[in-house]
Amino acid sequence: MLGKIGKQTDVIAHPDVTDAKFSGKDEDKRKNIALPFQLKELEKLGAKFRLSKNPVKITADIIDDR
């Protein structure tokens, strides 16, 4: 998507966005569902990361409170 946008794009994410994350309860069947890219790779494509552990006000009507 970043390659298609073709310009610098703000990406709001938690600082742990690149940490390994696994799905599934059975340890032998768990899948790694982490972001499959390094931040540096995405920055080369135009991503400008705003990393925050706290909610970020995007507009007056939109708050990313995850």
General description of the model:
The protein has 66 residues and is an alpha+beta fold. It has one domain (2-64). It contains two helices and six strands. It has helices spanning 2-5, 39-44, and strands spanning 9-13, 22-23, 31-32, 47-51, 56-57, 63-64. The strands form three sheets. Strands 1-4 form a two-stranded parallel ribbon. Strands 2-3 form a two-stranded antiparallel sheet. It is extended. The model has no long low-confidence stretch (mean pLDDT 87).
Concise summary:
By secondary structure, the chain is an alpha+beta fold.
Mean pLDDT: 87
- Strand ordering within the main sheet: 1-4
Which percent bin holds the helix content?
Answer: 10-25%
Strand content: 25-35%
Number of strands: 6
Order of helices and strands: HEEEHEEE
Count of all domains: 1
Low-confidence stretches: none
Structural class: alpha+beta
Molecular shape: extended
